[in-house]
Amino acid sequence: MQNNGKPLNVVGKPFRKVDARAKCTGQTKFADDIILPRMLACKILRSHEPHALIKNIDLSKALALPGVFAIVTGKDFPIPYGILPVSQDEHALCIDKVRFVGDPVAAVAAIDEDVAFDAMNLIEVEYEPLQTITSIEEGLLVNEPRIHDYGDGGNVHKKVSLEFGDMDEGFAEADLVREDTFFYEGNTHLPMEQHAAVAYFDPDEKLTLWSSTQTPHYVHRALAKVLEMPASHIRVIATPNGGGFGGKSDPFNHEVVVSKLAMITGRPVKCTLTREEVFYCHRGRHPVLMHVKTGVKKDGAITAMHFKSFLDGGAYGSYGVASTFYTGALQTVTYEVPRYKFQGARVFTNKPPCGPKRGHGTPQPRYALEVHLDKIAEQLNLDPAEMRRRHLVPPNSVTANYLRIGSMGLGACIDKVVEGSGWKDKFAWSNWRSAIGNRQSRKGIGIACSSYICGAGLPIYWNNMPQSGVQLRLDRQGGVCVMCGSTDIGQGSDSILAYIVAEILGIDPFDIRIVTADTDLTPVDLGSYSSRVTLMTGNAAIQAAERARELLTMAVAEKLNVPIENISFAERRAFDVENPEVGVSFAEAVVLAESKFGTIGTVGSYTPPRSPGKYKGAGVGPSPAYSYSAAVAEVDVDPSTGIVTVDRVWIAHDIGKSINPVLVMGQVEGSVYMGLGEILMEEMSYRANRNVVHKFPSLLEYKSPTTLEMCDVKTYLIEDPDPNGPFGAKEVGQGPLLPVPPAVANAVYNAVGVRVDEVPITPEKVLKALREKEKGRDARFGPTSIPNVEWPEPLRVLTPAEGGDGREMPRVAVHS
Amino acid sequence: MTNGTKQKAHISFLLNGEAAEVAFAPHKTLLEVLREDLTLTGTKHGCELGECGTCTVLVDGKSILSCLMLGLDAEGRSVETIEGMAEGAQLHPLQETFADTGAAQCGYCSPGFMLAAKELIAKCPKPSRDEIKEALSGNLCRCTGYIKIYEAVELAAAKMRGEEMELPRESLFGIE
Question: Which residues are within 8 A (CB) of A519 and not within 5 positions of it... i.e. 6 or more apart?
Answer without folding.
Answer: A216, A217, A220, A234, A235, A236, A237, A485
